[in-house]
Amino acid sequence: MKALKLKILLRGGLFLLRAYCWIRQKKNKERMVAAMLLIPAMILLMPTYTFTLTLLQSFLFQAMLVYGIFSIIWIFKHHYRLAGINFSIYLLLLIKINSPIDMGYSVSQGKEELKVMQFNVHAVNTTFEETIDRVIQLSPDFISFQEVAPVWAEKLEEGLKADFPYYTVMTHPLESQGIAVFSKYPLIETERVIWAGTANITGKVQVGEEQINFLALHTMSPTTKNRWDYRNAHIQAAKRFIQEREGEFLVLGDFNTVPWDKRLISFKSSTDLKDSRKKLTPTYPTWNPFVAQIPIDYIFHSKGIGCDSLNAVTITSDHKAIMGTFQIAG
Questions:
Q1: What angle, rounded to 10 degrees, do the helices at 26-45 and 80-98 form?
Q2: Which of 180, 246, 262, 280 has its CB surrounded by the most CB atoms within 10 Å?
């Protein structure tokens, strides 16, 4: 029995010695680090099928930057295998981020132009006058607001109705789910509807001789599995609504997801809408530096509408506003 124990002990010690010698080799150290880097990369590159994956992959842009920085570090340290692996992961993440960002439709016919803004004011934000003054200064033609708490509804109507005489406001028992639309152009057939427990405003905006369908929405922030399910159901309801309507469309809102989420990719492909952004254009949260922000606010448009430009604008909220200039085909 003692001999057996000694044999096991010696074999165990020999195994540990061999493992130690293997680890001490430079190329094997690199292999271990490479394996450690590949595991999170595989998670980040998987389709967003689950709640946890969706949350993790919201920060794909930040992960891409980390892998890019490590590529440079490994080159300076002459660890070229690691540099190659990191750079490959960086490129794959870059492709995943950029592939859903559309080049947009080019519209050469028609002379009607519409300046559109999308802005989540943040329900607890109290900088009413500063926000209203800034919106008037930016002078969009059509605006969609989210998180319109009752006090925001009152202040926006009071402050904007002179410059934007056509408007519809919809408050909600959850203050963060209130929504509003203000326009310099007539609004037609507006409706206030509830989908997946959230407020939505639909209708048409009359631009010259053209009537453009619009949908303004705010999906729930997916901070829990239940809210994630509600958000996904809301996106599905919006998709069905758009598919049932004819004519050109503008869809504006805080979708609470990123462009590379498979649900948003499916939403765009099934409705034949394009994202107005030409680059990442992150919008949330404003208190973070640019590299720590994510794009969750959108203006989508149909084929007969072209987007000349889209930019993020800091106003007063935890979200940036996005504002674009659109050409109507006619």
A1: 10
A2: 180
